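Pilot study result, target chain (523 residues):
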Amino acid sequence: MGKAMKHKRVTLAIVLLLVLMVLAACSSSNAPSDADGTNATVDEGGAPEKSAGEDAVKEEDLEPLPISFMIPLYDAQPHRLEGNPAVENYESLLNIDLSIDYVPSANYEDKLSLTLAGGEMPDVLMVPARSLKSTVFINAARNDVFWDLTDEWEKYPNMKSIFNQTMLANISVDGRQYGIAIPRPTARVGMLYREDLFEKHAIKVPDTLEEFYEAAKLLKEKEPDIIPFSFVDQLGETPWNGIDLLTVSEGGFSIWGEVDGGLQPYYETEPHLTVLNTLRTMYSEQLINRDFAIVQGAQKKNLIKTGKAAMYFTAYDDLMGISDDLAQVMPDAKLALKPAFKELTNATSGHNGVFALPKSTVTTEEKRDAILSYFERALDDEIRRARGYGIEGETYELVDGIPTFISEEIRTEYTTHVRALSNTFINPTVTRLPTDTPLQTQVKDAFEKYAELAVPNAIDPFVSETYTERGGELDKILYDARVKFIMGELDEAGYASEIKKWRSQGGERIIEEYSEAFRRMKK
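Predicted structure:
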């Protein structure tokens, strides 16, 4: 099985795979999700269902379809494909031959830019969410570098069933989709809180900004050694740190919203300023950690997971991992999730990027459709179970109908092997499993309940050329002003002056460009 990046003659495999694809399109599938509902790399599919047309052609008689990927690597070393039993079983089931260029995640954006600028392309190029609005990707899409997949989804019921219109709009360039969306929950941001402390002191779990402030004051009074609110503010952090959630709960925008037929940001709106003023008061009263502006990376969760803080805004699905960490140091502590304030939360983009198919390597419609058929079939229950557990009788067995690894040693070994397949498929955002814990159920309930209630950022589907070119520089003005205001280093006049500076140095142009794109869409 060759693993170097190469391009084989695949005509026979493509034609016969298309037979499977057309037959499969005649029936729909429920396409279950992964174990924790967040498109994880290890699946726990439900009872297997045979794909339509599975018996029509014996795939073992076909030559495997080679598919090359370029994806980020989040582990210290590249994964082994050759001789990897998890990979070989997966390839055999799907009749494919994978080759994967693993690029260290810290260098991925640079490698992506070089590849798009003229480097050797794979068949499938992962484009992370943060790169979708980059100049290099937008220009590539506009210059016909990738296949336009906008009109293809009707042929692929598994994929169509897990894509929603918000997700598809947000991956689009000029209204067209140049890749396969990697789904993520649309509603995902909430508040974790120490349920044991709230119960111990009969403190009301907050549902408004005012109640949030009052809860922090009571926690400070009752538990003086604990920081009431673990706060983190870095560039790009507001969708996750509670600022946007609290702003929408006060009736504001999720950063951007519609005003008089155009789009405007929330920086000087009353709901947002109310939130910033509350945080300013909390900082002055030592209800917030003093280092909120410098905490980064893994340190962001330290206070809540070590029992030193009582409230923390983050992704819903952090509940399980942080609860496990907290139990190691404080076995009696208990975390719970508050997924929304006033039944509102800020929406995420609903995706984690796309898998783009370059035309320079995927040179025909037949090969394009064969690769799309791979992604479609990878959502089948049988494939998901095999990817998640391996081979029945060898790595897992069914216990009361639930796939269960034969031993902990086998589970550890298989999980290590299957990581090689990370980021080579897509999953739905939520699947209910018989093995779900109460915390997993709580998170999945929140994903589903608030998916339609989450307030979107109105600019997510659009592109501003000025923001693409200068967004980082201009965002720094806004970020510095916000931090200095919360810390009391700027008053309201000083904050307003910084927003005026942002407008004059490019912000007004960004507003105009987003508004123009918005008005074009509304026509």
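One observation from the pilot: The CA atoms of residues 111 and 398 lie 43 Å apart. A full batch analysis is planned for the follow-on phase.
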